[in-house]
Amino acid sequence: MSQASQAPAPRFKRILLKLSGEALMGTAGFGIDPAVLESISADIAELRALGVEVAVVIGGGNIFRGLAASAHGMDRASADYMGMLATVMNSLALQDALERGGITTRVQSAIAMQELCEPYIRRRAMRHLEKGRVVIFAAGTGNPYFTTDTAASLRAMEIHAEVLMKATKVDGVYDKDPVKHSDAKKFHRLSYLEVLQRNLKVMDSTAISLCRDNKLAIIVFDLHTRGNIRRIVQGESIGTLVTDEENRPW
Q: Less packed terminus of the chain by CB within 10 Å, N or C?
């Protein structure tokens, strides 16, 4: 019997993976680490081998962060548009890594740039997923003042993803920064309301509220542990689950 036939069946048919731009930096302080791209590509390839449909949203903080620039006097809308362009660069880099690994990929941008990628069209995105292609959603929502967390929540609901998987540098959600505080407490499960009331930095409040209103579960996990994405999809309890009791995905 082959290893694939022994593997647990995936719990989800379609997921949205949210990656921060900073995750692509690796140990560098700026830009894109090719080794990180290869690792993410390998994780996504494992999901495709299980038959899971995968959509991705990537931030742009490794190249340009609009909110930080606006804090130093730049017009917020202009800064956010620059941040959207940074997400397109990251999306094209991930597309390249995936396609070199044999995974057919489409980038859809909320800002039209037809020489580089497709425009975001919801029905076309869903058709790509049904055909087994990975779809990367670039340029956020196409609107300033909205984060890529909000874009991830919105796209996940538009394509009827069963779960939003938020990749981070730590292994879940804590009550305070575990890097700075050795007594930080990890949460294995939270409700949307607890995240908002405790002001926990899972995703921004708009994204959390969207997920709460539409009953979309969020799983926060450590991206840098190889195989985590596959293990979560196969039903292992990894990271922190954000949901309500009536909306548990398993």
A: N
Flag whether the pTM goes above 0.90.
Answer: yes
Sheet holding 163-168, edge to edge: 118-119, 105-109, 134-138, 53-58, 14-19, 163-168, 218-222, 240-242, 189-190
Q: What is the pLDDT of residue 246?
A: 61
Q: Closest Cα to residue 57, out of 14, 108, 111?
A: 108
pLDDT averaged per 10 residues in sequence order, the chain, 250 residues: 65 96 84 93 97 97 82 89 95 97 98 96 98 98 96 98 94 90 93 95 94 96 93 95 73
Chosen CATH of 3-233 out of 2.20.25.110, 3.40.190.290, 3.30.1490.190, 3.40.1160.10: 3.40.1160.10
Instruction: Show me where the domains of the chain are located.
Output: 3-233
**Pseudo-torsion of CA 26, 32, 37, 39, nearest 10°?**
-10
Name the DSSP letter for residue 65.
Answer: -
What angle, rounded to 10 degrees, do the helices at 122-130 and 148-158 form? Answer: 70
Token digits of residue 78: 């202009």
